[in-house]
Amino acid sequence: MAANSAKETTFSWEGMDKRGKRLKGEMKGSGLAFVTATLRRQGITVIKIKKQSAFSSSKRISEKDITLFTRQLATMMKSGVPLLQSFDIVGKGHSNASVSKLLADIKGDVETGSSLSQAFRKYPLYFDNLFCNLVQAGEQAGILDTLLDRLATYKEKILAIKSKIKSALFYPISILVVAFIITAVIMIFVIPAFKDLFSNFGADLPAPTMVVIAMSDFFVQYWWAIFGAIGGGFWFFFYTWKRSEKMQSTMDRLLLKIPVFGELIRKATIARFARTLSTMFAAGVPLVEALDSVAGASGNRVYYDATKQIQSDVTTGTSLTVSMQNTEVFPNMVLQMVSIGEESGALDSMLSKVADFYEGEVDDAVAGISSLMEPIIMVVLGTLIGGLVIAMYLPIFKMGQAV
After folding, report:
1. Does the predicted model carry a pTM greater than 0.90?
2. CB atoms < 10 A from the CB of 301, how many?
3. Euclidean distance between CA atoms 133 and 197, whole angstroms
């Protein structure tokens, strides 16, 4: 299946529908004939079709786009707007042409007899199993508008948590990148000018100055190797991380052990676990099936493996609380809340409270990290840049004392 999807190419097309209205859009397919046949089945007469360049200017569809679409669709269906008309309104009003095309394709599938969940399943890149399972449960129970509303709320909360994690990590990483660039510029351009000046002194230079000049000489001589090694290292790291399960597992375990940030990631992962399971369980999805979606939405390989173990234990008749306890990755508070939920028959409500609690913990942790990182970064930058400046001015101070 993966091999087939890898061979798919994006084609841009223009055509006319049965009413003579001119349409255009994009579609992925294994070839020209496949795309033409698919459009014909949707009642579109193809006028022009061509393979799209790999460097197309079309905007990619983000998770935020899907979240916004889910909220808009839920709002319209709750207001009594028919499903197909809702797709029309949302698609035509969207600023991203790629989203409009995606919604037009889904609407076309629904018009030709597919259920909404089946239409969504054709686009796994944008709609995961959790999304499709909830939509399917809503269609079967006749409460699609309610479950779309619940799904939109879920996606908004998960998106908010991801955004907070990114904001907590972005600031220190961006400062470190800027610090490295400034240091490289000083090493390659500024210090060599001081070196030429000091060569006329005719006296021994202080040890710190000699060390900095030696570092500068290395930078000037091997700058291409330094930048190449750093760029290649990052590329290899992320390439391997995406494709190796062993690498993902190792890195996710290390991330959870990083001081300060590790605890933040753990809280965010538990919040996502609880929020996902609560949403699925409240929609009436069986626990074993729900855990399958929860594993995929965990966002951390450690909790993915733990959820798969929980799913296996629950299948054999073990209670959810005992199964979670056996993984040894959940705090006592979470276990106690789940236990109360199982005993009282209000598991979805208890899991929702757990998610609310840990989302609040993430908010507090992000605020704390932001206030903590600022003075630490100032000290690091001051020591680094200030140390370089002082090392280069020491010979001038020494000469002034001699005079």
Report:
1. no
2. 19
3. 71
Element (H, E) at 388: helix 347-402
Kindly tell me the burial class for residue 19, based on how many C-beta atoms sit within 10 Å of its own C-beta (0-12, 13-18, 19 or more). Answer: exposed
Q: Could you tell me the two tokens for 86?
A: 């809702």
CA distances from residue 329 to 73, 301, 305, 337, 361 in whole angstroms, order as listed: 37, 12, 11, 15, 17
Residue 195 tokens, joined: 């070196």
How far apart (Å, rounded) are the C-alpha atoms in residues 179 and 162? 26
Provide the 10 A C-beta neighbour count for residue 367.
12
| The two three-digit tokens of residue 366, written as one number | 């992000």
Maximum distance among all Cα pairs of the chain, rounded to whole angstroms: 94
Determine the 3-state secondary structure of 158 from DSSP: helix
Q: Could you tell me if 211 and 219 are in contact, meaning their C-beta atoms sit under 8 angstroms apart? A: no
Q: Is 281 exposed, middle or buried, given 0-12, 13-18 or 19+ CB atoms closer than 10 A?
A: buried
What pLDDT does residue 52 have?
Answer: 64
pLDDT in tens, 73-112: 889 888 888 888 888 888 877 777 888 888 888 888 888 8
Cα distance between residue 65 and residue 95, in whole Å: 10
Cα dihedral across residues 25, 31, 33, 34: positive or negative: negative
With contact defined as beta carbons under 8 Å apart, do 247 and 241 qualify? yes
- Cβ(279)–Cβ(356) below 8 Å: no
Q: What does the pLDDT look like over 63-83, one tens digit per residue?
A: 888 999 899 988 988 888 888
Integer CA distances (angstroms), 398 to 11, 390, 401, in order: 70, 12, 5
| Residue partners of 76: CB distance under 8 A and separation at least 6 | 85, 86, 89, 90
